[in-house]
């Protein structure tokens, strides 16, 4: 198959690939996106798994994101119509009784934001709250002065160095690492921790968390695909790539597992990191530019998603469960999955413990820890799925940052996109969109305004 009528071929239909495609199409390029799965969206997708609607992962939309909402607005998608904004989050301790509500929307819910910070002393005492201040101040200072030094520390190491008390580490920092990117503070880079939260400091007034009003493919990805098709893009699902085609050291296309080759003047690899390595290693594994990417470690992620006979909690909002395997979770029966009486998605931490565990044992472990949080999960559970990905995320452990590649490569005709590539928002939806824009700039050979 010859596809030379397209200027750019993008492998992968996650937010990185769609962002790149949108920018190139806006500049008049003819773009073809291929996707191995039968649905688009990558790590921001939903599908039916043997009759149960599931999502690729537990995602929330952060109010201070800029690149993602800007992309959506340009595609004529209104973020407020696809999201329900949450004004509070909850922390539950594993004693079966203690829970605290914290406000996260200074403009929409100022009283709860203020009172949440100054109360909840049974979750974290005033002295423990105070112990966080030097940690935050020094972390933000080092982030601006020498960010790579921060990547030498885990969050726990940096916290202890600056006098954070154990209760603050367990009840505050633990949820903010394991509940966001899966890993406990002992394994989570201080650079990633401060790098993700620093953009929210000057935009604190914009802080809020959005839950999706439906599956992410349905409410975000499908409208993006429609906007791309209006701009002349072609999207081919069920089209897995086999390898890269090269002529005279230039990438000229992609060979397909089903046979044939798609050709284009430029190829953008916009898959998750493990798939990118599988495509790039055979032709470039011996080249110096590829070596850091080849050494960039990956990490697993595991969620359990349950349909319930009734809602588990009275609100659809983020809840953290420090001291348990439940890093974070949310009731979703009023927002993302309103077709069932009750629905929760839970991030499991640390993921290495669950990646090979049989589903029934995962369910038993989660139910036991839910009991500790005062949640009667077992009695309400009607069905569940364990969603595992062994190596789709680059590792946010200390020391990984130096291995992340740029979007521009020294190989003519080849660019990279994906949150593992170098951009400041790490492994987030915002980071994926930023990487796609940078990949488009690499293809065009100039910065976009």
Largest sheet data: 7 strands, mixed
Top-tier CATH class of the largest domain:
Alpha Beta
The parts where pLDDT drops under 50 for at least 5 residues are 105-118
Widest sheet, order of strands: 8-7-16-17-18-15-19
Beta-strand segment tally:
20
Distance between the termini: 36 Å
State which percent range the strand residues make up: 15-25%
Averaged pLDDT, please?
A: 93
CATH topology of the largest domain: FAD/NAD(P)-binding domain
For the record, what is the CATH homologous superfamily label of the largest domain? FAD/NAD(P)-binding domain
Concise account of the structure shown:
By secondary structure, the chain is α/β, with parallel strands linked by helices. The chain contains 15 helices and 20 strands.
């Amino acid at each position: 198959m010859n596809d030379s009528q397209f200027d750019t071929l993008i492998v992968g239909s996650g937010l990185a690939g769609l962002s790149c495609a949108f920018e190139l199409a806006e500049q008049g390029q003819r773009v073809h996106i291929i996707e191995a799965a039968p649905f688009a969206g990558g790590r921001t997708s939903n599908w039916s798994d043997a009759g149960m609607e599931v999502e690729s992962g537990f995602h929330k939309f952060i109010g201070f994101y800029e690149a993602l909402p800007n992309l959506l607005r340009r595609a004529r998608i209104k973020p407020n119509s696809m999201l329900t904004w949450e004004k509070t989050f909850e922390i539950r301790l594993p004693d079966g009784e203690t829970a605290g509500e914290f406000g996260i929307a200074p403009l929409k819910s100022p009283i709860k934001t203020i009172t949440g910070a100054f109360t909840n002393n049974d979750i974290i005492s005033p002295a423990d709250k105070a112990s966080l201040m030097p940690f935050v101040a020094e972390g933000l200072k080092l982030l601006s002065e020498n960010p790579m030094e921060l990547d030498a520390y885990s969050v726990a190491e940096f916290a202890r160095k600056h006098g954070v008390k154990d209760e603050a580490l367990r009840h505050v920092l633990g949820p903010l690492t394991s509940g966001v990117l899966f890993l406990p503070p002992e394994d989570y880079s201080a650079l990633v921790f401060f790098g993700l939260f620093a953009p929210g400091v000057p935009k604190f007034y914009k802080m809020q968390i959005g839950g999706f009003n439906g599956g992410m493919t349905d409410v975000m990805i499908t409208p993006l695909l429609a906007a791309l098709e209006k701009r002349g893009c072609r999207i081919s699902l069920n089209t897995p790539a086999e390898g890269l085609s090269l002529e005279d050291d230039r990438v000229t296309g992609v060979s397909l597992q089903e046979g044939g080759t798609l050709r284009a003047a430029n190829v953008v690899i916009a898959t998750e990191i493990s798939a990118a390595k599988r495509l790039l290693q055979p032709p470039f594994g011996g080249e110096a530019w590829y070596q850091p990417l080849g050494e960039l470690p990956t990490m697993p992620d595991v969620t359990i998603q349950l349909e319930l006979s009734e809602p588990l909690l009275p609100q659809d909002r983020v809840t953290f469960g420090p001291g348990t395997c439940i890093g974070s979770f949310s009731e979703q029966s009023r927002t993302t999955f309103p077709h069932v009486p009750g629905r929760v998605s839970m991030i499991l931490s640390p993921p290495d413990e669950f990646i090979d565990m049989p589903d029934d044992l995962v369910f038993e472990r989660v139910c036991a820890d839910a009991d500790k949080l005062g949640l009667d999960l077992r009695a309400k559970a009607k069905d569940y799925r364990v969603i595992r990905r062994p190596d789709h995320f680059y590792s946010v452990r200390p020391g990984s940052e130096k291995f992340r590649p740029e979007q521009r490569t020294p190989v003519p005709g080849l660019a990279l996109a994906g949150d593992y590539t170098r951009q400041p928002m790490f492994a987030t939806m915002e980071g994926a969109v930023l990487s796609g824009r940078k990949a488009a700039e690499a293809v065009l050979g100039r910065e976009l305004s």
